[in-house]
Amino acid sequence: MPVTNVSHDIDTRTITITAEFAAPVSRVWQVYADPRQLEKIWGPPEYPATVVHHDFRPGGRVTYYMTGPGGDKHAGYWDIQAIDEPNGFDFVDGFADANFEPVETMPVSTSEFRFVAGGAGTVATFVSTYPTADALQQVLDMGVLEGSSSAINQIDALLAA
User: What's the whole-model pTM score?
Assistant: First the structure.
């Protein structure tokens, strides 16, 4: 499995996941830059994602929904802040309603995804920072560590395909 470390820190309001992939940085980058690849890994296996809009550039927005086992849909968005192809990107990650409008009562994180050559190919570091400790705790209670780890662990199969 590619995830090598998962941690959270209430004091800094962060979640950090580290993973290693047996592929070059440019290949791992493509998983996020291509909406059809992204939807194969963004949701956990039991909540597959469908990418609706993929404007993957600074100032752009990515919208998606995940479909649960009972057919329930959970929408979200990324507001892309910065891109450093193929080394990483920064974005605001939030929950959305059925029209892909932000849900103001749900936590929003600022995320930094970084890809560097190392290990067997690429070491990826995924850091999400929340505005408050309560916001971080809310997503922890929702199972974000398990969900994110299981989503990232799908990347190996995609890279091997």
Answer: 0.94
